Amino acid sequence: MSEYYKKLSDAETEAFGAEIDALKLDVKKKIGEKDARYIRKIHRAVRYTGVLGRGLLFLSFIPYVWFFGVAFLALSKILDNMELGHNVIHGQFDFMGDPTFEGKKYEWDIIGTSDNWRETHNYKHHTYTNIEGHDEDIGYGFIRVFAEQKWNPWFLLQPIYTFFFAFVFEWGVALQNVKFEKTPGKTLFQSLRDNNQEEWKKMKWQVLKDYVVFPLLAGPLFLTVLAGNAVANIIRSLWTFTIIFCGHFTDKAQVFPESAVKDTRNGHWYLRQIQGSSNISGGKLFHILSGNLSHQIEHHLFPEIPANRYAELAPKVREICERYGQTYNTGRLSKQFGQVWYRIFRHAFPSSVAA
User: Fold this and answer.
1) DSSP character at residue 326
2) What does the angle CA 251 – CA 253 – CA 254 come to, to the nearest 5 degrees?
3) Please, what is the average pLDDT of the chain?
């Protein structure tokens, strides 16, 4: 057990789980119209900033307007990805009975399909958080961020390829659940297309929308709008990469052996969520732009609770953690992101579990 987290007895673990359960039950009783109004405001913000951003890109012949267009379009995409799509897909707003916010059917403005995300993220990641062999989000399969991951010489290059991966992060996430098997008698491209029809359809639509349709509508400003859309997508990827990596791969974050998958008791599951997560401190706007994943600890504990409730839950979770000797891993963005990159550089080289 890490020095940051006290090893609890079975009785302590059960009591710890009971307190987290009681906290979850208490906040569930409060969920209602306030939360519905909040997500509707976010939905409107996504639409209005998106329209404004695309409209300004069409006016890019005016000096400096292009930069404002990119900024508003990137803002729309970030809000859609983080605070709207991610949280709606978790089913946080199913209580509304509004088809617009139905978790099992919601589709977002990103390369990957929501069905794939529900499989790799909602199910695998949230059920088996940081458990080796089960959570595919541990370094996304090609980045070594824990000493427990087997080293090979390829990892020596990871500081370089991780840097570039951040720029295309949405593509990395989209490809997580893609089937790459080659079908006999077909080319690799045909196999990829036929074995991943929904993914192919979504990727084709996203590429056509941002890199063909909207640029063509701009006429002589085709290249200007094309560049604006590309930069907005890159900004969204960089921001998402930063928030997600800071939520999972900081210095105090733990990884768990495959045997941990057998222990599904609430107390043990809650402990893994806390020990494998990191928060980021900041103001209200920062939390919204992060999709409230700046409260990653609370999100892992309560993925089905509306994320706008995490700020009020955080002090209570922290107090429980302190009483049970569990470090509440939080810090400013620069500190947490620095730790992420330290891990990426450190574990590029051979290291033992004790390192």
Assistant:
1) B
2) 125
3) 94
Query: What pLDDT shows up at residue 1?
Result: 54
Are the C-beta atoms of residues 329 and 4 closer than 8 Å to each other?
A: yes
- Contact indicator for 246, 281 with CB cutoff of 8 Å: no
User: Distance (Å, rounded) from C-alpha 338 to C-alpha 278?
Assistant: 13
CB 113 within 8 A of CB 107: yes
Question: What is the dihedral sign for C-alpha 346, 347, 352, 355?
Answer: positive
Least confident of 101-110, 187-196, 266-275, 280-289: 187-196
Can you give the pLDDT at residue 354?
46
Q: List beta partners, residue 13.
A: none
Rounded distance, CA 270 to CA 297, Å?
10
Per-residue tokens: 2 = 């890490």
3-state secondary structure of 332: coil
Token pair in block for residue 61:
């012949």
**Contacts for 349 with CB less than 8 Å, ≥ 6 apart:** 151, 155, 156
Three-class DSSP labels, 118-155: HHHHHHHHHHCCCECCCCCCCHHHCCCCCCCCCCCHHH
Task: Decide if 306 contacts 92 (C-beta within 8 A).
Answer: yes
User: Are 39 and 88 within 8 A, CB to CB?
Assistant: yes
Cα(90)–Cα(86) distance, integer angstroms: 6
- pTM as predicted: 0.93
Q: For residues 31 and 39, what is the distance between their CA atoms, to the nearest angstrom?
A: 12
